[in-house]
Amino acid sequence: MKPTVLVISCVLLACQASGPAPGEPLPEAPLRAIADELVARTGAPGAVLVVQRGDQRWRGTSGTADLLGATPMPVEARFRAASLTKMFTGAMVMQLVESGQLSLDDRLSMFRPEFPNADQITIAQLLSHTAGVTTMWFDQPALQGQLAGDLSRAWAPGEVLTKMAEFPAAGGPGSVGMRYSNTGFVLLGDILEQTTGLRYADLLQRRLLQPLALDHTEYVFTTPPGSVPGYFEVAGAVLDTVHVSLPALVSFAGAAGAISSSADDLATFVDALVLGDELLGESSRAMMAMPAEPGSWYAHGLMRFCPCDDGPGGSAFTGVGHGGNLPGYWVVAVAYPGAAGAEDDVVVVAMINRDSVQGATFDRHVFDPTLAAVRSAVR
Question: Which of 84, 131, 242, 251 can pair with 121 through a Cys bridge, CB separation 3.0 to 4.6 Å?
Answer without folding.
Answer: 131
